[in-house]
């Protein structure tokens, strides 16, 4: 009797196990039994399809490993495949970064580093293009300007495809030198510049009072502390009884959307600052509250004003909250997410487009100012110009005086 019951229980166990295996397999779950792994037919066919799809890549990898004139480390292949995934998008703002590259990228928003202080991007023409030099850095002092094309770093010729390598060479120990060769639109011959690296500290906000009662507030980029610093400087200017404000965003390459929106909230009434739209058409609106400054202000921009700078500029222009003075901005209307992976590598990926409050998409076009004033060429290449020479600043002052 006991034996029959045992046999019956054994049969039930087998039936239950079989049922579980069937359920798991039908849901494409791999099951290990007797040192063998069982998968469903659908899963098997899927895996075979993947093998067939990537067989060429595996074949070429083996060809390289066996025939390339130097040994290639496996890590090189892994990084190359991951970088290739992002490069296939043909989007200069999406990229996979190795650990050292990701660490380097994050210092631009959270720390300091040894280098020359220029923000660069892969240009559509294949050149490494200067978005803008960071204010008061060796790059700006050496005369590098927005729109310059970097074609050589030290003795190495570089293209947009070698952006990360070029940036790594330009960085280095403070006090050391680096040679930069650039193309400039209004020059026939390349321009070679030797620059001494410095410790680049990201002090992104400066302020002063002009003409006794006009506040001047310069934002060089939007990093993790820019909004906090902006509020402190604004409060300091207001304590001096300013009657108007100039916000200078010239050569500001952008940065944190969050910081930009927080600053816009100080300037604008209850309204939409910007909205984003993803691939599915989902929109996300970022709004300001009713609180705002109670005096007139102007914003200065140029072709080096990009990304977050354009979000602030577009919100002000669309709502006529202030007057925009200068030249057409850079034209970057894409939003990226930045993520660090568990091994210290990371990536940037464009996840949406942004639109100004009136629904304008400025990517590749930029924002035209309310009043267009071009600086003379001789002033564009000067590392420092006086307030009197700065005709864009003078126009902003004129506008504010007429409103006070």
From TrEMBL:
Pfam families: CtpB_N-like, PDZ_6, Peptidase_S41
Species of the source: Maledivibacter halophilus
A GO MF term: serine-type peptidase activity
UniProt keyword Transmembrane present: yes
UniProt GO cellular component terms: outer membrane-bounded periplasmic space
Domain of life (superkingdom): Bacteria
Family that this chain belongs to: Belongs to the peptidase S41A family.
PDZ domain boundaries: 105-171
Keywords of the record: Hydrolase, Membrane, Protease, Serine protease, Transmembrane, Transmembrane helix
Gene3D superfamilies, per database record: 2-enoyl-CoA Hydratase, Chain A, domain 1, 2.30.42.10, 3.30.750.44
InterPro entries: ClpP/crotonase-like_dom_sf, CtpA/B_N, PDZ, PDZ_6, PDZ_sf, Peptidase_S41A, Tail-specific_protease
Transmembrane regions listed in the UniProt entry: 7-30
Protein name: C-terminal processing peptidase-3. Serine peptidase. MEROPS family S41A
């Amino acid at each position: 009797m006991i034996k029959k019951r045992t046999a019956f229980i054994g049969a039930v166990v087998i039936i239950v196990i079989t049922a579980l295996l069937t359920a798991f397999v039908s849901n494409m779950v791999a099951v290990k039994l007797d040192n063998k792994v069982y998968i469903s037919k659908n899963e098997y066919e899927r895996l075979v399809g993947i093998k067939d799809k990537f067989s060429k890549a595996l074949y070429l990898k083996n060809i390289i490993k066996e025939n390339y004139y130097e040994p290639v480390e496996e890590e090189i292949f892994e990084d190359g495949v991951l970088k290739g995934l992002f490069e296939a998008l043909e989007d200069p703002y999406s990229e996979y970064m190795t650990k050292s590259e990701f660490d380097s990228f994050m210092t631009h928003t959270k720390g300091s580093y040894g280098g020359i202080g220029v923000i660069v991007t892969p240009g559509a023409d294949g050149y490494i293009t200067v978005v803008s030099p960071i204010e008061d850095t060796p790059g700006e002092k050496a005369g590098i300007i927005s729109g310059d094309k970097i074609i050589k770093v030290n003795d190495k010729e570089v293209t947009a495809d070698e952006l990360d390598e070029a940036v790594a060479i330009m960085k280095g120990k403070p006090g050391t030198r680096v040679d930069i060769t650039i193309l400039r639109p209004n020059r026939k011959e390349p321009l070679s510049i030797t620059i001494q690296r410095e410790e680049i500290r990201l002090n992104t906000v400066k302020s002063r009072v002009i003409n006794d009662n006009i506040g001047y507030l310069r934002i060089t980029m939007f990093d993790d502390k820019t909004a906090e610093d902006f509020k402190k400087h604004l409060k300091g200017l207001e304590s001096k009884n300013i009657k108007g404000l100039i916000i200078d965003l010239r050569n500001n390459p952008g940065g944190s959307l969050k910081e930009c929106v927080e600053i816009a909230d100080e300037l604008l009434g209850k309204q939409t600052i910007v909205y984003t739209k993803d691939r599915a058409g989902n929109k996300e609106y970022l709004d300001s509250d009713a609180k705002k400054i109670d005096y007139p202000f102007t914003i200065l921009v140029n072709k080096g004003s990009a990304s977050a700078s354009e979000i602030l500029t577009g919100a002000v222009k669309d709502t006529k909250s202030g007057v925009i003075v200068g030249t057409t901005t850079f034209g970057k209307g894409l939003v990226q997410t930045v993520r660090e992976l568990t091994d210290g590598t990371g990536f940037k990926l464009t996840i949406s487009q942004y639109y100004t409050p009136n629904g304008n998409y400025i990517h590749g076009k930029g924002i035209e100012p309310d009043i267009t004033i071009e600086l003379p060429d001789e002033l564009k290449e000067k590392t420092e110009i006086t307030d009197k020479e700065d005709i864009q600043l003078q126009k902003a002052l004129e506008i504010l005086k007429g409103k006070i």
